[in-house]
Recover the amino acids of this structure.
């Protein structure tokens, strides 16, 4: 007894590492369907596939996540036999910069590529927060033209519609980092620490509102907990451009543009950013992408420090219930922007680049929420085993069904208890069971059973005799098996 | 200058870790097409998708590769924040055993699952030998019936034909470990070390031939280098069953079976193995899988120690030229077998299992060898930029083409040098270039150019004027752009 216990404790635990999960049947199939729909759009836009390995040198990855300062923070890393550090990729952009640098003499220029696959983050897992998740990216490297950014925004719009998000249920929102820099310039703040504080305060706009931002940029503010938060100490005149920026979104693009213009004043970089935004708007308009699909939104900032120009985000605008039962907008499923410095790390030369990343899991969740992902995987027809000495007969039926393109299998468990065969068929969501006993065999007949209908007619059937008495079951000629099964599947799909 | 050099040396190297590689455009697309063809067959056979994470606990993986004795040998492993060891999966079978153990109460029984994805091996890389590669597996867990093995063999045959291997160009070869154990029993050898030596010698059959095996099992043998290799020391009577086994393959299944019968003598386990082989043959025959697709081949041993019953292998029988220009058979692209002990590690209960793994990269190589993977990825139509102030006009054409389902893009590099635009189109294998200068625009016309035809007509074209003079280029009405481009693409595809 004691020995037995000890043996048990030596057995490995059957669980994945924390923060990792498995995906079964429908989950995998649904994601694959969505990825192939996305691929189709990316391909139509002229983007080529690229698949890099899961593992890169830590050196090539840049040793840290783009928005994390400490080395090795956030990545899974280990040393190779020759002591060189290697790590699992944390996104698809860092490997792209490596590939472009390595093969830039052979690749077309500009290089449009798409990539999809898992990325890994060594972060504390939480509910719905995993350490391995899918990304689906498209980037254009080597195109300085703002047309490349506009193209990605159009593509994002087409992609969302291709996977089943209806027009009106999403918006592609565009902004430009240069406008933000122009606003900073307009404040007249030149001290870098002060600049960073202004940006941090702008990021708090969602939480503290316009009055809160005003106080935080000025003398300071009493927060909800009663603590006094020191302000940045700007004058009212310095604060004005920031407030103008934060409230610049107008009822249409041209009013937003004109508001932004007054926010950036005479700043060259700011005016450049605004003219880029206008250009994006013009190109998208030319392609037929109007205000119902794309808009300028000054609140789009995108966290990553490496963006240098246009930034964009796809937001789903319909509401869902959150964990607390409150209605809220579904929110962002994709984002990206222009990053002109990432390749420079390798080559020393600045290479213009712009690209987008789709959060595959969030987009799938949205489609499920909208009920656009139903019944992708149909259960197989189950050929039951009535007589274990006649497996070859059953095997022949299964082969005929499969050759006709019908998903089918012979029951492979212990055939003794017929009830177990039916329970198995139920668990597999089988549409049809095929039954051939000795009598049927002798007379060239088989029984086929509409299992969905059967389930509705009877909650619990244990014996073959009861089973046969159900009207959902019909007797057919053995040689009409394929056509009769096909009819029954079609009928059962119609009934759903 | 010196400073510059130092700066340069600080730049990261743009290369992947050794033994890892990138896959571009066509490679990725071809593999995806093949994987979806395989998936379709697996699905039709009733198998459900499963995707496990890339990372498992070292405990769950079993700490070592199935055919390697030393811990951590062959896997990429590292310690998590809580010091627990985790590792990249080295195959898709170990994670399946973990999943089945974890979810066995919820999964259907038997559980048929397929999985595809990369696996990682921490081995010394070599030419064509990578440390990350694709596998594509199908397994049935919880089915003791030999019908499950027969089903996998049929499925393997259907899968090869589905991806484009013609009947006659492959054979699914089946053997049974129990027959091998029966042969060992028939020798009368009971000492475990001696048994292992006999098995090792059987594995050398390919190299040393029947006479060599005879000597090595007996007194010993002078090898090619002149060294004397000690023999296992069996008597002639003990050696006889091994020789009978190695030469048992007959001109048809029943003669092979009868030869095997004499090799195993009275061994119960051997006779059981033979009757399992007969059963597989019978079931496959019933499904229509004859000797042109499946055969019993006693030389199939499969390296992994964990196989306990039927083992199978898919061999491509056509010849290719090897690196030295010699003709040789393409060989194995897939293998598997029955392994009844893998789940037991976790649960303590023996669970019957059988499954197959397809070497995706080798199968792709075979299809390329046979020329069955041509032109899967077509280049995009390139809308050239003649006038950089009219990007919106070009963008509009691109959007029209894309909305019509035609792969298309606007040239996004610097448009100044028109020759570069044509070079880009060439690099992208574009079928058609669209050209609209100011004159054309004014007259509602555009030029479209058959690039493949153009390339044949002229090796080097640098200026727009020369370009226009080529007969491969035609002037069309702007509002017939879609239909004319479609016609030109169809013509160019016909010409190939």
């Amino acid at each position: 007894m004691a020995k037995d216990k000890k043996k048990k404790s030596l057995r490995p635990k059957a669980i994945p590492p924390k923060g990792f999960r498995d995906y079964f049947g429908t989950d995998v199939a649904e994601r694959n369907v969505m990825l192939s729909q996305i691929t189709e759009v990316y391909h139509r836009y002229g983007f080529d596939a690229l698949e890099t390995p899961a593992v890169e040198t830590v050196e090539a990855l840049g040793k840290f996540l783009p928005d994390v300062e400490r080395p090795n923070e956030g990545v899974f890393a280990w040393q190779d036999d020759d002591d060189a550090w290697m790590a699992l990729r944390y996104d698809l952009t860092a490997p792209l910069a490596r590939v472009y640098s390595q093969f830039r003499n052979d690749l077309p220029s500009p290089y449009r590529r798409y990539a999809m696959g898992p990325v890994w983050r060594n972060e504390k897992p939480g509910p719905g927060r995993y350490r391995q998740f899918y990304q689906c990216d498209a980037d254009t490297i080597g195109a300085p033209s703002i047309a490349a950014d506009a193209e990605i925004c159009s593509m994002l719009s087409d992609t969302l519609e291709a996977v089943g998000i209806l027009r009106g249920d999403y918006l592609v929102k565009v902004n430009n980092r240069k406008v933000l820099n122009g606003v900073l310039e307009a404040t007249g703040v030149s001290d870098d620490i002060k600049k960073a504080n202004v940006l941090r305060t702008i990021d708090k706009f969602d939480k503290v509102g316009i009055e809160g931002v005003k106080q935080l940029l000025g003398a300071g503010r009493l927060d909800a907990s009663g603590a006094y938060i020191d302000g940045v100490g700007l004058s009212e005149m310095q604060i004005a451009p920031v407030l103008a920026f934060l409230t610049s979104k107008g009822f249409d693009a041209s009013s937003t543009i004109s508001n932004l213009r007054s926010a950036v004043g005479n700043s060259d970089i700011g005016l450049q950013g605004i003219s880029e935004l206008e250009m994006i708007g013009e190109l998208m308009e030319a392609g037929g992408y109007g205000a119902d699909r794309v808009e300028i939104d000054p609140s789009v900032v995108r966290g990553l420090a490496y963006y240098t120009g246009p930034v964009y985000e796809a937001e789903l605008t319909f509401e869902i219930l959150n964990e607390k039962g409150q209605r809220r907008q579904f929110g962002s499923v994709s984002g990206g922007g222009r990053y002109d410095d990432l390749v420079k790390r390798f080559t020393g030369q600045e290479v213009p680049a712009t690209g987008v990343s789709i959060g595959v899991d969030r987009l799938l969740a949205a489609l499920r929420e909208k009920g656009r992902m139903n019944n992708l995987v149909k259960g197989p027809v189950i050929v039951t085993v009535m007589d274990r000495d006649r497996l070859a007969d059953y095997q022949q039926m299964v082969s005929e069904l499969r050759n006709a393109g019908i998903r089918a299998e012979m029951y492979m468990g212990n055939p003794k208890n017929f009830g177990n065969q039916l329970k198995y068929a139920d668990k597999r969501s089988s549409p049809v069971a095929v039954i051939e006993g000795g009598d049927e065999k002798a007379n060239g007949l088989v029984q086929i059973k509409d299992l969905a209908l059967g389930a509705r007619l009877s909650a619990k059937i244990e014996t073959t005799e009861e089973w046969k008495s159900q009207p959902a079951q019909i007797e057919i000629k053995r040689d009409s098996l394929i056509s009769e099964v096909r009819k029954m599947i079609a009928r059962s799909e119609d009934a759903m």
Notes: The first strand of chain B starts at residue 23 and ends at 24. Chain B has two domains: 25-189+234-369, 381-494. Residues 246 and 450 of chain B are 62 Å apart (CA to CA).
